[in-house]
């Protein structure tokens, strides 16, 4: 009996030892490469609201999962126009002469940037350039012989592979967290140019801009975003592939800005149902919704309802592939596009245009237009845009959602600040026209609103019920039923493609 117990104990101890030996050891990686990771702090501008100072949320759109997280930890408080330096994020040295990569939202609103090295030295940094569309920033400090990271190839990453993040979450410098690669090539809302690396590495505010290492000590990504319903880490972190970041950094280093291709189309995903209706055997490609008049695609003969299958011999599997491929194409290049039209393949030649700069395409605060109208049955307070507003937004028509009541529109994804460009197949030019189109919709029928939000244009669908159609414009809440299908938001890319 004793012999059996000893054999059993030996077996379990041997198994435990073997399992322990299989667990990764991160100590060597951190010791060798951690010195190239830096802490970034800054003095930021403050805006005043109700006699309180509110820190600006640096470069993060309100619909980003990260926005609420930052906002929750940046509450209004009495203060002077500027604060003491506050830890904002992380970064890493990519060259020994002081060039550093980080996120654009970490530094773009800063008045003064301070970089703290692992050896406690501090330097004032200058911004070489930022790119909001990829959330990449290149900064520089005046120093030499600095430790630098080694760049890896994100294409070689495998799902399930161990990865390590080093950064300064909540100002705790050089914190190390580890996890695995959960997925590759993830597309996120309003992030048209980045095929994100998804991990379960613990990322929090302050980690932004820090490196993601593979087990060989090579940087494969820049930690950028988390997905959270609570404001805390929930096991979903997203990193920008390092090859995307370095391509942007190279352009920023040369010219301080990014030149990105476009062809002037709005697209949406090809579902199984759409593929069948267009005579395709699979759901590959990007369905053209609208074509910019006079744009590169229009000049090449591309039409609405065309399905783009290849761009410059690169296959377009999903609609999210097209903005990346087009954006990475040098403006002025002449490329061939394979399309599906009327049941057959066609090839057209297009000269790629250039995407407007962030300054030209960024959201601008709209001045008050005409008095908002609240009489529509969707509970939307709409106002007509002035000529100046249309010029600022680079559109020719549309209505601004200034406010809204709880109802089908809010549940379907419409938000304050959205610009409604179209109603089903019609362009929207006035509140009167919008209400008239809405009045004509029969009960139980779906409507599709073409909505512009920032740099992204999207179709939002919803179904009107009897209660909704007959509802007046009173303050009483509507009785609305929204099914799972009714609440569908179909993402399409913006005119930056």
SSE blueprint:
Elements: H1 2-22, H2 27-33, E1 37-44, E2 46-49, E3 52-55, H3 65-72, E4 86-93, E5 99-102, H4 104-107, E6 110-116, E7 122-131, E8 136-140, E9 150-151, E10 162-167, E11 175-188, E12 191-199, E13 211-214, E14 218-226, E15 237-241, H5 242-255, E16 261-262, E17 265-269, H6 272-277, E18 286-291, H7 296-300, E19 307-311, E20 314-315, H8 321-327, E21 334-341, E22 344-351, E23 353-354, H9 358-361, E24 380-384, H10 387-393, E25 399-404, H11 408-412, E26 419-423, E27 426-427, H12 431-439, E28 446-453, E29 456-463, H13 466-470, E30 489-491
Parallel strand pairs: 9-14
Antiparallel strand pairs: 1-4, 1-6, 2-3, 4-5, 5-8, 6-7, 7-8, 10-11, 10-13, 11-12, 12-15, 13-14, 14-15, 16-23, 17-18, 18-19, 19-20, 19-21, 21-22, 24-25, 25-26, 26-27, 26-28, 28-29, 29-30
How would you describe this structure to a colleague?
With 497 residues, the protein is of the alpha+beta class. It has 4 domains: 32-140, Trypsin-like serine proteases (Thrombin, subunit H), CATH 2.40.10; 152-244, Thrombin, subunit H (Beta Barrel); 261-355, Roll (Pdz3 Domain); 364-491, Pdz3 Domain (Roll). The protein is built from 13 helices and 30 strands. The strands form 6 sheets. Strands 24, 25, 26, 27, 28, 29 and 30 form a 7-stranded antiparallel sheet that branches. A 6-stranded antiparallel beta barrel has the order 1-4-5-8-7-6. A 6-stranded antiparallel β-barrel has the order 10-11-12-15-14-13. It starts with a helix and ends in a 6-residue tail after the last strand.
